[in-house]
Design brief:
single chain; alpha/beta; Rossmann fold; Transcription Regulator spoIIAA; 5-stranded mixed β-barrel; 19 strands; 33% helix; disordered N terminus; binds S-adenosyl-L-homocysteine; binds iron/sulfur cluster; binds FE3-S4 cluster
Length: 453
């Protein structure tokens, strides 16, 4: 592969790489990737590419991939396969792969699937226009997947239409190395943005009409800003020094969740929403230890009790993995009763999937696929039965809902409650961006129906 080049600096910056060509980006994975896609579109628009909704109209297709679970490489190849006839019809069409699979697989992707013109890593998004320019200039099989280990994390949020609620990265990467997780390998070392950059960013977004920001990172509570500012301090600063109406954050790690954070949330409860996504992953301390999560079952439950004490109306959601290597039926029961004991109304649960580079992939006591899937189904059944009952307590109550958009299919509008519930109700588009009182008439675990008070 001698024609793989990493010499991107040689390409001169141009302002018209796109020449009006269409660009289509398909996005997999977490909110980081959704934000990265926005950034790619914004950078490419500056170079005169035009975002299109249909890949058939594109001369540039980018797959922003995720490798956190099952067959990610296979998904990339099968999507590329669907573009075969388009590439035949339009020899000018370029196909690139970015995101976590790009970072993980690098040139392997091009070796296996020659239809891929270029691959770039998660730290190379800001160099995407140059890479694309090289590709359109006829250079083939380009790969740029270097991590920018020494460069500080100085970016400005780039979103084309931020809407009412938007995400703002505060950290990138992860240093926790949970033994099941590929993210530390695909996103590199953890870095925090400087405090003032984040505040300025949020002020700009507010000027563009944003009412709610979600501060984003793999583990936001380990945020380390300049001048000793920690995550709780940052939240307080965003609440005090910007005009944003609502603040959320995700994801927080139980090991780093402290009383100070609860106090800040309580003190600024008019702005910081009482909703916390706090993944517990497994209910058994033995499994948690092998996952390298750095908390026990009891410690997790103590954190929940501490948070509930300071924030009595808080809503929790969580992530769970079933069938981690060595998980016995008894361990799994501990996961089931954790769900009912805490009373999670929303869960995101997954069957364990061995990931490259990770320690747990080499553990010898892997659980059979059939057992994993059977446990996952049982978990969903137990959760559903509990959650359907639990949310009934909201029926008849009134919630403050920030209206986000019109739900065109149903002639309704939709928004989020303070506790992050999706609420549908009859109303007009002029309410978008306003916070209104909505009385809940019907509550399901994932979505509520209501009427304007
Ligand atoms: N930074 C977040 C998680 C990011 S990955 C945190 O620490 O909570 C999102 C979720 O995917 C994880 O919480 C976990 O539940 C799930 N996940 C990660 N790796 C997985 C794997 N190998 N198999 C199955 N699920 C996994
Ligand atoms: Fe993965 Fe753990 Fe980091 Fe979350 S905290 S991204 S699960 S290594
Ligand atoms: Fe996100 Fe998937 Fe990467 S969950 S961090 S896009 S592996």
């Amino acid at each position: 592969m001698d024609d793989i080049t990493q010499n991107l600096e040689s390409v001169e910056k141009s302002t018209d790489i796109g020449m009006g060509r269409g660009v289509y980006i398909s996005t997999y994975g977490c909110q980081m990737n959704v934000n990265d896609t926005e950034r790619m579109y914004a950078l490419l628009e500056m170079q005169n590419f035009v975002p299109v909704r249909d890949p058939k109209e594109a001369s540039l297709i980018i797959i922003n991939s995720c490798s956190v679970r099952e067959k990610p490489v296979h998904k990339v190849y099968s999507e590329v396969g669907t573009y075969k006839y388009m590439k035949r019809r339009n020899p000018d069409l370029k196909i690139g792969v970015g995101g976590c699979v790009g970072q993980q697989e690098k040139e392997n992707l091009i070796k296996t699937q020659p239809m891929i013109d270029f691959v770039f890593g998660t730290d190379q998004i800001d160099n995407l226009p140059q890479l694309v320019a090289q590709s359109f200039a006829g250079e083939r099989k380009l790969v740029n997947s270097r991590f920018q280990h020494r460069t500080p994390y100085h970016i400005e949020t780039l979103v084309r239409n931020p809407g009412v609620a938007t995400y703002v990265n505060i950290t990138k990467g992860c240093d926790n190395f949970c033994t099941f997780c590929v993210v530390p390998y695909t996103r590199g070392r953890e870095k925090s943005r400087p405090v003032q950059h984040i505040l300025t960013d949020i002020r700009h977004l507010v000027k563009r009409g944003v009412k709610e920001v979600t501060l984003l990172g793999q583990n936001v509570n380990s945020y380390k800003g300049d001048e000793g500012v920690d995550f709780a301090d940052l939240l307080a600063l965003v609440a005090k020094e910007t005009d944003v109406e609502r603040i959320r954050y995700t994801t927080s790690h139980p090991k780093d969740f402290n009383q100070k954070l609860v106090d800040v949330m309580s003190e600024h409860s008019n702005k910081i929403m009482e909703y916390i996504h706090l993944p517990f992953q497994a209910g058994s301390t033995k499994v948690l230890e092998r996952m390298n999560r750095n908390y026990t079952r009891e410690e997790y439950l103590e954190r929940i009790a501490m948070i509930k004490k300071g924030l009595p109306d808080v809503c929790f959601s969580t992530d769970i993995i079933v069938g981690f290597p060595g998980e016995t039926e008894e361990d799994f029961q501990d996961t089931l009763n954790m769900v009912t004991e805490v009373g999670f109304e929303t869960i995101f649960a997954f069957a364990y999937s061995p990931r490259p580079f990770t320690k747990a992939a080499k553990f010898e006591d892997q659980v059979a696929e059939g057992v994993k899937n059977e446990r996952l189904n049982r978990l969903f059944d137990v959760h559903e039965a509990m959650a359907f009952e639990a949310v009934k307590r909201y029926e008849g109550t009134t919630m403050k809902v920030l209206v986000e958009n019109v739900d065109r299919d149903h002639g309704k509008i939709q928004g989020r409650s303070t506790g992050n519930k999706l609420v549908h109700f009859l109303g007009t588009a002029d309410l978008i961006g306003k916070t209104v009182d909505v009385k809940i008439t019907k509550a399901f675990p994932a979505v509520f129906r209501g009427e304007l008070v």
